[in-house]
Structure formats: C-alpha cells, structure tokens
Design a protein that fits this description.
63% helix; mainly alpha; Four Helix Bundle (Hemerythrin (Met), subunit A); 5 helices; two-stranded antiparallel ribbon
C-alpha cells in the first residue's frame, strides 16, 4: 500500500475504534472477562501504549538512519501497562485517554509523512525482545501493524460488551 493510502486507512481504523469504544457503557469500562489480559476500558490503555511503543521504534529507525535496533521497551514498562490495562479506566478517564490517543495517532502520522519516500518501505532489523532474533521492519510495516491493531480491538470489543451485559 502506498504511504498516502496507508495513512488514510490508519485514520479510518482509528475512527472505527473510536466508534466502537464510544458504545462501551461507563459501567463496563472495568469489566475483565475471566482469563483476559485487558478490561474493556483497558483496551484503550493498551492501544495508547502500542502507539507509544511503535512511535519509539519509528523514531529510532529515523534517528539511526535505519540501522539495526535493539529493544526500546523494558519488561518493566510492558508489565506496568499490562497492570493498568487489566484494571481498565474510570468513566472520567475515557475522554483524556481518547485525547491522548488522538495526539499519539497524529504524532505517528506526522512522522510517517515526514519520511523520505525511499524510506517508506525500507526494512531494518529490529529486535523487539531481548534474546529474540531481530524482525525485518519498515515504516510501512509499523503503520500496517497499528491499523491492524485498531481493527483487532474493533472486532473484540462488541463481544466483550455483550458478555458484560450477560454477566450483570
């Protein structure tokens, strides 16, 4: 997908997530299905964190002139976000979390727009986890993963709302 189309689809995916998340009743934001990692409201925490994480990778690719990268996120950071996502958010935290997402989303989009055209598909070895082989990654890949990530939770959220309603 070319960069302009990918950016437009990135915006479409975010809008789809916002529309679904808007349907979550305030009382359901803390609902955690047994065995899940994220409460319904924690999905927003998780989405924001993934935007932060992949923006770090994108920034490092650009700053390092697309040289190989080592992990940029610590296990402690992942653990902290996982704990917050498991708890969900309070109703008063919904709008601030959505504003944070809007800023993070715009930041990723601006960084992608600022790339030289020849770097859009440029692959670089990125090690995401210590001790794991690097994964060949381009800005195109990162934006695709973010689009897919929004959509994964667009599909997941309505089922969680239905389960919450059934559990009441």
């Amino acid at each position: 997908m070319d960069r302009d189309a990918a950016l437009a689809d990135f915006d479409t995916a975010r809008a789809a997530w916002e529309a679904v998340f808007d349907q979550v009743p305030d009382a359901a934001l803390g609902y955690l299905r047994p065995g899940d990692d994220y409460a319904i409201g924690g999905l927003q925490v998780h989405i924001n964190w993934i935007l932060v994480h992949y923006r770090r990778v994108l920034d490092a690719l650009i700053a390092g002139h697309f040289s190989a990268l080592e992990p940029l996120t610590t296990a402690a950071e992942w653990k902290s976000v996982a704990q917050k996502a498991k708890l969900g958010i309070e109703p008063a935290e919904r709008q601030p979390a959505l504003r944070e997402m809007a800023g993070l989303h715009a930041s990723v989009a601006d960084a992608v727009r600022g790339l030289a055209a020849e770097n859009w598909g440029r692959k670089t070895p990125v090690r995401y986890t210590p001790g794991v082989e690097p994964f060949s990654t381009s800005p195109d890949d990162l934006l695709g993963w973010l689009r897919d990530h929004y959509r994964e939770h667009v599909e997941q959220c309505p089922a969680l709302i239905a389960e919450w309603k059934g559990a009441r």
